[in-house]
Write a structure and sequence with these properties.
homodimer; about 375 residues; alpha+beta; 60s Ribosomal Protein L30, Chain: A; Phosphoribosyl-aminoimidazole Synthetase, Chain A, domain 2; 2 domains; about 30% helix
Chain lengths: ~375, ~375
């Protein structure tokens, strides 16, 4: 596994820029590039121009990257989602791939307003992986599932030859039930909605990057990986008519806001200085040439809330451990549909876009 | 991808035996070996001795390799399952990884008596994969989902650096609803039950193997990959009290019967000459030193049926395209619990066991 960073991950040394994965290939051509897995525009294009046409009538009309809500007999609504985790290194400050695989999928369910219920776990193991390491990661999944209140109910294990994997990849799919009266989805964003972020951004991406070979830049930043279902339950208890929830994973806050604006056909404005960015994240991003708005998080969400209930929701969020540092950062507007605008510290404005492809490969 | 067979797959040449993955490592030691993914005893040991203890209280009490049936509010029973597909080559006579990923998971749901409803699809793509090939495989998934009557409702795409994958791996998880009155599970096997196999065995494994580099042994055998949900629905319409269903994937008929015997604490006896083994499969297995009972299938099942209804169920199966060649091969007995016994052509008997690890690596 030690050759991952040599082949694909960024290096601290300016002389090693050749070793970067192509961060923004403008013309990806006919082959898969790292950026197709970055959660940005290339990922979205792959879904829109390859997967959806190929799946044809079998495809859901919903955006296939979010949790899907299925109508079951008896009127029950089932949320169903999947994510494969390929993060490198497998363990990073503040977490590991097992914890991430549980919380990431639990959070996807929670973003549809569902109460997470059960997860599957499916491993692709590379021949030669230490069983002790596998056991530690599986234990981490067990603890995380316990904390998140879900069960690991079904699974699969495949093994690939040495040199055809990277230690391990793990997929978790999840199911949960959407409570009656809850209707949380991107399409419900309305002009006037208040934009709330649940805490400091950029921690997960910088924590993972700080452990990549050659990037020991001396920070004590830890991943924010955490389950958000309790936070969401508290928010829904305060405002059952909550409009939109979105976790801030690949592509960061900027990608989440852009995708919400595009999906709902609304504009979003926010104050850059109101976005909670820890000083250490700001420093690391400056050093690495990254925009904190594009860096992945694994325990943060953005909520679009009716203005008249925003104060109460914010207070409720701040009483939860996972929402302690929640902050109002902006609002939804009927102007410039599909476009996200940040007000800068100097009083100007700038258009915020999704990254093209990969800022940080293999981040989740 | 062309070096897969060089590293891990069996070769036709007797001089190349060194290139085999260790097929039956008696002491796997402390690392993952290919056999841990073979679906045999090593796979079962990994679940029992590593995953279940590590998951702890979060683990389901059900065998985590089968579809799990969850009780939802209102008494609805939801079947939930997952499988990752790592088959090499990605296309093989009679199918490809996309079709396999849809039918494999649909069949897992059907084996719990559920009506399959929706699948997720999560890809791990290797940098450099041709987008055209990806599109063909995704199209194959779409067609297969259409044939199986399920929708592809949620998904994920990750990309790993060149040399850290194998073209693509795909995970599908699936959900379905178990109809009222249906209770199909291994624990329901009873002495006196009749054992029915739904058709010829060994086709998938031999078809995949025939395309591995160095193994062009000239056969026209095609994979039997097919959705079994319609066959199961027909069987349940004939006998709602059907006891047990099991698909014959990794580890083949022998592994399925052994696991059923162990889970239910019953003995199983069958007539070897009644098991439908095509002549071409028998010849290929003889050439390769494989036991057809251990070779994977992707469109066959075994059913344990009450004796008084077995005749009707068999007739109903034979009217379905997927069950045309169904045959009664044996019966469940109260003797030798946990043990499967085959009556040989010469009138003797032999104990049938699961393979230790890998006969054929990367078969599904």
């Amino acid at each position: 596994m030690s050759d991952t960073a040599e082949q694909g991950a960024p290096r601290a040394s300016a002389a090693d820029l050749e070793a970067w994965s192509c961060p923004a290939p403008l013309h990806p051509g006919e082959q898969v590039v790292m950026g197709h897995g970055g959660g940005g525009r290339l990922s979205a294009e792959l879904v829109e121009h390859l997967f959806l046409p190929a799946f044809g009538e079998a495809a859901s009309t919903a955006t296939p990257t979010d949790a899907s809500v299925l109508e079951l007999p008896g009127g029950l609504r089932l949320a169903f989602t999947t994510d494969t985790y390929v993060v490198q290194p497998l363990r990073f400050p503040g977490g590991d791939i097992g914890e991430l695989a549980v919380y990431g999928t639990v959070n996807d369910l929670a973003m549809s307003g569902a109460v997470p219920m059960a997860l599957s776990s499916a491993f692709v193991l590379e021949e030669g992986l230490e069983l002790d390491l596998l056991s530690q990661i599986a234990s981490s999944m067990g603890r995380a599932a316990g904390r998140a209140g879900v069960r690991l109910v079904t699974g699969d294990t495949k093994v690939v030859e040495r040199g055809h994997g990277d230690g391990l990849y793990v997929n978790t799919a999840g199911v949960g039930v959407v409570p009656a009266g809850v209707d949380v989805r991107p399409g419900r964003a309305r002009p006037g909605d208040v934009v709330i972020v649940s805490g400091a951004i950029g921690l997960h991406g910088v924590a993972v990057l700080s452990r990549r070979e050659g990037l020991e830049f001396g920070t004590d930043i830890r991943s924010d990986t955490a389950p958000l279902a309790d936070l969401v339950a508290t928010m829904l208890a305060t405002d059952l008519d909550l409009h939109v929830l979105r976790d801030l994973t690949r592509g960061g806050l900027a990608t989440s806001l852009c995708e919400l604006a595009l999906t709902a056909g609304v504009g979003i404005e926010f104050e850059e200085r109101h976005v909670p960015v820890p000083e250490a994240v700001r420093a690391a991003c400056g050093f690495l040439g990254l925009d904190p708005l594009h860096v992945a998080n694994e325990g943060k969400l953005v909520a679009l809330v009716r203005a008249e209930r925003a104060g109460e929701v914010l207070e409720a969020m701040r009483r939860c451990p996972e929402g302690r540092d929640s902050a109002v950062i902006g609002r939804v507007t009927g102007e410039h549909p599909g476009v996200v605008v940040a007000r800068t510290g100097l009083g100007g404005t700038r258009v915020v876009d999704r990254p093209m492809g990969e800022q940080l490969p293999r981040i989740c």
